[in-house]
Amino acid sequence: MTLLDDLASLLGDELLIDDDARRSRARDTWPRSEFDQWQARLVLPAAIAMPSTTERVAETVRLCRAHGAPMIPRGAGSGCVGGVLASPDSVVISTEGMSGLRSLDPVDGLASFGAGTMGIDAENRVRQDGFTIGHWPQSIEISSVGGWVATRASGQYSTAYGNIEDIVYSVEAVLPDGSIYRSRPTPRASAGPDLRQLLLGSEGALGIITEVTFSLRPLPEPGVRQAFHFEDMATGIDAVRGVIVPGWLPPVVRLYDAGETRRHFRDHVPKGRCVAIFLHEGPPGHAALEAVAVAELCRAGGGEQADLGAVDHWFEHRNTVPTWTELFEQGLVADTIEVATGWGQLARLYTSVTDAISAVPKVIAATAHSSHAYRSGANLYFTFAAQPSGPEEYQSVYDACWTAAMQAATGCGAGISHHHGIGRVRRTWMADELGDAGVGVLRAVKAALDPDNLMNPGVLVPD
Amino acid sequence: MTLLDDLASLLGDELLIDDDARRSRARDTWPRSEFDQWQARLVLPAAIAMPSTTERVAETVRLCRAHGAPMIPRGAGSGCVGGVLASPDSVVISTEGMSGLRSLDPVDGLASFGAGTMGIDAENRVRQDGFTIGHWPQSIEISSVGGWVATRASGQYSTAYGNIEDIVYSVEAVLPDGSIYRSRPTPRASAGPDLRQLLLGSEGALGIITEVTFSLRPLPEPGVRQAFHFEDMATGIDAVRGVIVPGWLPPVVRLYDAGETRRHFRDHVPKGRCVAIFLHEGPPGHAALEAVAVAELCRAGGGEQADLGAVDHWFEHRNTVPTWTELFEQGLVADTIEVATGWGQLARLYTSVTDAISAVPKVIAATAHSSHAYRSGANLYFTFAAQPSGPEEYQSVYDACWTAAMQAATGCGAGISHHHGIGRVRRTWMADELGDAGVGVLRAVKAALDPDNLMNPGVLVPD
Q1: Chain B neighbours among A 162-181 (CB < 8 Å)?
Q2: Pairing of β A91-94 and β A71-74
Q3: How far A181 CA sits from the closest chain B CA (Å)?
Q4: In the 8-state DSSP scheme, what is residue A177?
Q5: A341 near B CB under 8 A
Q6: How far apart are CA A270 and CA A230, in angstroms?
Q7: Considering the entire predicted model, what is its pTM?
Q8: Per-10-residue mean pLDDT for chain A, 463 residues long?
Q9: Which residues pair with B377 in a beta bridge?
Q10: Do A108 and B343 lie within an 8 Å CB cutoff?
Q11: ipTM score above 0.95
């Protein structure tokens, strides 16, 4: 029996082999593979498995393993770092067949969803019961809850509500050997290493996440919005630090450089200024108290109150995700690169990376904003655009921008990825991130759990 | 050359082989091994290595590995689950030689300490610069910062400030192969699995933590203290849930059952009542706002304001740690067992475990308090005492109490350890905690990183 025969006999109509199905699931939204698709040279997988239960995922994994077939776990495909990319002999195992609410416990504030549930559907479902997940990635309308875990995602409300690792209560996953792992559903444990953390950020290389349970929050009262603009990024960074360090935690804290402020908020903020927008939420009375305190801190830090329309504009457009192909057709390549570092290095990181990208020939824009703040530092989320001479230059210009940014970032001591993950685009710099010993640990864990390297080969783990 | 010759030549006076040195570091404060010491039948290790630098730790590890000698990493020995227990052929690698501040960055709010630094010394040091670590285990005066990481510790202020995994910024460790791992010092990363999490809770079985960097908080303004007493634990649990779920986060939230309330707070709380004590801290204005809101919620939940002396009493005695030998001499065996579960099961867990322990012959007390609260649940921290007929019964009575508690806890779906770790005393129940697939992952990781099982054999990983 061939692999496809065996899969068909196991999965029936949960196996797709038509071209359309394979083409639409052969990649994520990494610009490089979108470019390949645009150029009609995308490689398709052998088949798409879309098992509807965890047990069927496990059987699919065991079958692929028996045939030595590479497996590519895939959620909704909104990842942007090349975490999903088919090879001709591979089977894409999609979580699309496992979606929807599995249980909701209003006393403990827990909701379990099949991994393929779309983020926005999960959020809307818990809202019916008066809860919020509190995780708002820009991709919420096009990403799955399993993908959030697999990529160790961040949401726009992270400054108060944490990143995905702070919101996930328990996970269920099929491991590379076909066994089913379910983490103990408890609020906290000291029972050895937290094994969930091997799945958070595993990018499909250590297993397939099949179910995610979130620790919910009650829907808060309507929040308070405000915005301030600053002379430059360094001043804005100091002001945001001045808000966070004493313990204020607005769910949304975003600081845009002058270029992005102009691009997004030109109707609301004077030219050349850097805008910081805040959303305050919390238990009764907290948001009002915090808003007043933050306003005082921003003014003391050189900020001037900005038109509230800036915040409203962001809220209206915050889930908009661009399509790379639209840009290709205009002769442009672009991407985003998010990294993080301590407060003391943040202004230098901003300058170093934007300068480094700007120095790449054909680059026409390199800007940034900070969207996630922590006690000891924050992220910077860079956007670049370039206008190569023609499609034959797209890849080299794109790669040159990434190399420039990563070298500048690691040169400042920054981490190489704040929240998009590693995939293929950042793999070269994993030794900078983890050190030789850390790469050794990652390789050892991968080899121990997936000795034949069949689970999403090519991502995350450096060669 | 024998192992001891080689070690002496490497370490000089950083190797101790005298009986006193070996006896005082042959164990942690697990009641069972303290009992063995009291009975003068404690096994001593071959030697105590006390390397003063990370590089020397690495050389010590490589040397022990070359000789096939078991290594037992040890901090200050305040662990209470049998995580440190010598065998005659083993080398205890103590972190005592690596203590003190290594760096302090006031801008990022980061402080790095040698792993052997005592907790209270680290806290006092950062206070000189206006910071707090915010981690207050009861053992703070007798535990080391490396031990906090190795045991995945919790502190008394965890409800607002998090547990050790929320406070640690980066770690340095010597891995079982003698390589030195340093996690990238960034505020957050999506760069594969968070490898620090393999060391958090590793209990010496996956490496030796040599340095810990904390993300600090500025010292808060003096907080607001208050206490309320409730009719029973179920009512108190509901009230605490009513405080936590809307988003209030007092650093200290402790609810004692009637037995412990009587034992500790008899001068301040009416007999038969369960007291809840709160400490509120935060940025300016927050503590006052929270205190008023929490008082209203507690009263609405059936609470009556308690004498503030109860809170003061707790603050005065909160770092007192009993000595088991004092109890042995009085004919008593005792221990504490902390577990955690969701809000909805907490009252049942309280009753099940206290009933199960109370049913063990010779038991004279089984009480509990809850000391760490989360959005979706909380811990319970049980204390038992028994009066066996004589020392020959100490061990069997002790074991029977643990078995009764663990069976009752797992029967309620609780996690088997909230913060003390696994060590030897809980190893039997690791399959309940992790499931078969989880045990498989833990074993695979252990085998991958420590193929000869030389690093603290006998703890954590089930046989």
Answers
A1: 163, 165, 169, 175, 177, 179-181
A2: parallel
A3: 5
A4: T
A5: yes
A6: 10
A7: 0.98
A8: 94 97 97 94 97 98 98 98 97 98 98 98 98 97 98 97 98 98 98 98 98 97 96 98 97 98 95 98 97 98 95 89 89 97 98 98 98 98 97 96 98 97 98 98 98 98 92
A9: B342, B374
A10: yes
A11: yes
